[in-house]
Amino acid sequence: MNMTLQQLIECYRTDPDSNFPGLKYQTRIKHGRLLDRLTREYGRDQLRYIRFRTMMEWYGGWVDGGKIATGRSLLDRLRELFRFGATVLEDRECTRLFEVLSDLQLESPASRSVQMTLEQAIAIRTTAHEHFGWGSIALAQAFQYELLLG
Question: What predicted TM-score, i.e. pTM, was given to this entire model?
Fold first, then answer.
């Protein structure tokens, strides 16, 4: 089958055997946005012409400017797409591409090194409580700051 990335994405979104329809709502929205981006940027590319170097070039563009988490998320979506294509659709190109990505190890985004100040925590609590009426958010922020939670 001469499938494009866009066709694979559409199959993934609509196939009853795909895990996409069963995702929690917020997860489906987040993943849907990433799939939309993949469709916009590379949807016309035929799977048979995508190589490891192609995906690394894409990844390089995605992480440009330090957006490592975005690049990882997009590559994770590609892995999931190719896994679906390999297992459910039994597509040879998806199997090849999934195998290429399955052993790929990527850098993790750097941990945050700046801690919230007491003034920032108070400002968040005040705004949540007084401006929005979100007492639970104010309380959660107080716990988070006082218990040194991330």
Answer: 0.72
